[in-house]
Structures are given as structure tokens and as C-alpha cells.
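Collaborator request, handled under Task 6.
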Amino acid sequence: MMSKTGLAALAMGLMLAGTGPALALDEVSYGTNWLAQAEHGGFYQAVADGTYEKHGLKVKIIQGGPNAANRSLLIAGKVDFYMGGPLGDMDAVKEGIPMISVASIFQKDPQVLLAHPNAGVEKFEDLAKLDTIFMGKDGYVTYFEWMKKNFKGFKEEQYKPYTFNPAPFIADKKSAQQGYLTSEPYEIEKQAGWAPKVFLLADAGYSPYSTMITTTQGMIDKKPDVVQRFVDASIEGWYNYIYGDNKKANELIKKDNPEMTDGQIAYSIKKMKEYGILESGEALTKGIGCMTDARYKQFFDEMVQINALPKDLDYKKAYTTKFVCKGVGMALKK
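C-alpha cells returned to the collaborator:
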């Protein structure tokens, strides 16, 4: 008869050989901020290709949308991670809500302003010459205020509400329109038959991070290992999505969002790479997801300049850099 010690050794040997019972995966959820799309592709990739499982995780992606409330679900403890942003994080600090971002997948916010191709608009500053800029209320109180503070000629009279219908912009050659780098330019070219001029706010100096991994202070305190594994696996997922075989991830995206097309996905991936949305700045040498104190302070100072945040806010409570900038996944780049 085999001793207890021998049985334990046999069991361990079987597990190491891959024939024993699998270790239980930690189940976590990630709430996105909109309907499934290529801009969320790395997270779907890490589900589709087993990267999350390789890191001991079973991940459920909960897509956002017009009626979703994933930020509220994070606050209520109903999801573990959320696709947040720096302004939302700092607003949470102001409200005393213990939300904290642990990675920024996008180094550049994909927010753009679009102009007609033959309207005399060749650089960002030229947008000030236009009669109208269609933009949503969030842009109006943030980056439009920043534009008025930092460039000559932008004025209140240019603002008209954007209703997510490009027809007024298409019809008015002396107008500009807000958009997302990976979305509106594609749709406008399909509808109008011409490609709009694209001006990325990030390349004009507007500095927020975007598409972040946000969690709660409680999660960081109680399960730092889970947080690190989710961050690392998500970063690897993004490298595989951008540079590897992303077919299965795209199928998951289209399953969650049946209106998504292969053409839109391909366009989005192309533009994310072309404009350095994921890979620019510190991410070029320290990996996707990297955040720095200096960059976060830069955006905080921009928001203080336009009175969007109080200057005495302890903004450093909104993020931590300890989980990123470690070069994770860079070897996957092909």
C-alpha cells in the first residue's frame, strides 16, 4: 500500500504532467464603455485565444452601450473591472468613490475633429476659421474649453450640438464635427463619398489616457495578484490582437454586437496602428498599458486650467502605476 506521502507526490506529479485536476480559475468580469468593437479587441482576444485562462482567470466581458451602467456596477461591486477614463477617475476622487485605474490601454484618446477636404483646413488651428463645430456636451465642457484656452480663434458661437448624425456636417462645408478616429471617418466616407480631414486631439496636445482598466481600491487591497494577472493577460491579448490572428476575437465581437462589420473592424485596427493609439510615448519602450505620473499630472493640469477640476484635488488617488510599464507582452509583437 502506498503511503500518504507517496500518494501526495503522485498527485503532484500528475498535476505537473498536465493529467491531474486543473486548478480553479479566478472568475472576474470586465465592463466595457460601449458596444463591442475592435477598440475592445484585445480583451476579446485574451478570451478567445486562452490568454486569460493561461493566467488563471475566467473572464466575462460585459459590453456597454446606450443603456448600460457598467461604471455604476463597478461602484456597486457587481463587476470587477471597468473601461474607465482619467476624468471619470478624478471625478470619483472628488466624490469620495474609491475607484482607481491600473492600466491605460490607449496612450492617445481617439477623439477627433473632422473637416471637409477642400475647406482650407490644413492644420488643427485652421478649425478656428470654421463657422460651426458639431460636438456633444461632454466635448463641449472639456476639450472645446481646452481648445479655447490654448488656441486663438475658437469661440462659443461655433458650437452646435452633435446628435450622432453626420448629415448636418456633410451638408455644411464650413463646419467641423467631433468623432472617434476609428468610427465616424469611415461612416462619413461611406455616406458622402469623400474622406474627411481628420485631426486627432491628442496630436494637438490634448493628453488624456483612454480605454483604461479601472477597478476599486478594495480589489487592489484584497486581490492584488488577480489585478496583476488581469492587467498582464489583457496586455498580451492586445499584442496578439494587433499583430496576430484575431479572427476568433472578431467573431466574439460580432456575436456581442451583430451590427459590427468586418470592414469596420479592419478600418479600426488600421487606424489604431497608424496613429499610435496603443503604442506611442512610454508604451513604445515599456509596453502597452503604461501610465506615468508626469502624463497623468499633465491632464490634471489641463482640467484645472478649464475649471473642470479643483486644483487642490488629490488626483493621485485616481490611479496607480505599479501594475504596468514592465514590458509585458512586447515579445509577442511581430
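The cover message to the collaborator said: "DSSP finds 15 helices and ten strands in the chain. Strands lie at 26-31, 57-62, 81-82, 99-106, 111-115, 132-135, 159-161, 175-180, 197-200, 210-216. Please let us know whether this matches your experimental observations."
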